[in-house]
Every structure is written in C-alpha cells, then in structure tokens.
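As a warm-up, study this chain.
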Amino acid sequence: MAHKIKNVLFDFDGTLFDTQRLHSQVESELLGMHGIVLTPEEITKTYSGVRTEEFFADLLGSRELADAVVKKKREILFGRCGEAEEMADLDQLFSFLRSKDILFGVGTASPQKWVDTILQEKGLFHFFDRRSIVAGDMVTKGKPDPETWLKLQRNVPAGECLVVEDGVSGSVAAVACGMHCAVLGQPDAKFPDGVIFISSLDLIPGMFPV
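Now compare it with the structure written out below.
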C-alpha cells in the first residue's frame, strides 16, 4: 500500500487534534439540559464524525431546536478552542508529507471556521489551501456519505488515497470510496472490513519508503 499512496486525507477532531473530548463534553452538557442523558464517551463512540446538526435533530426530535442548540455549542467551543492539543507533531508530519510530494488535506464534520481557527492558532494554516479543507458546512451530506472524501480526492485514483480517521462514519465513507483507511485507535468490530488500525500518527511516515 505505502508506495502507492499519493494523497493522505485526515479527519480533524480526534485525529489531528484531541478536540473530540471537548466536543463530546459540551454536547453532553447541552443535551442534558433537554433531558437527554448521554455521557461524553457514549457520544464519541456513537456519533464521532457525524454532523452535529444531524444527530442533534434525531435526538431532540426537532431540526429547529437542534439548530439553536448547535449554535450555542459553537459559541462555547470557540471560547475554548485554544484547549485543542495536537495528536502528534503536526508541523513535522505535514513537512514530511510535503517533502515527499504527497498531497494531504482535512475532511471533517466540523464547520470551516473551527478548522481554520485552530490551524491558525497552531501555526499550521500555511500547509493548506481552499482545496485541501472540506468541512461539514461545505458538503450537502456528511459522513458516512462519501462526499467529504470525494471532494478531497483531487484527481488522484481512490486506490492511491489514504484516509486517516478515528470515527466509524468517516471510515465507512472511505471504504465506500475505495480508499485505504487507517484508524487511529484500537481494533474494534464496529469499523468496516479492510481498515488498518494504528496507535499513533507518528507511524504515518513509516508507511512511505525512505
């Protein structure tokens, strides 16, 4: 697989940055205010990679209410986005991929402003352009629909693309596209057949020949 990969597509929350705990904590608190009891861990396991608007609407039974709650969530999160921690030395990882002439991008259920803000705060925004970031408010259908990854394919054959994910939905979307998929985490039967599991982003450079 390694020698064929020409395009690496990263999920954002929980993959590049340890923001999933923050997302899930805020979501748990907000849902609890409306009588829906889900722990942050349950939210992460079940809804990681799914657009918040979609699963809030399902749980709350109202798209209008869901939109209002999502708006409140974003206000809270942007006030705390500085808490996001890198899952690895991303400057080093992105520099390595660039040195190998390997395309890379971000595909996420989070809104574009969230991605841009964190990348700018961490000094990583210069690695990306408008074609290499596809956020949740830039697609018609979020993961597990393949649209996110297809928008980042950039004329590279699917078999030469590697998606790096931590969520089931994004992994399902990657497999549906015919792309390779590396899951950051421990093996779990909930993920589709054909994915590989990795314990750290630090293992990504080792997938490419020296």
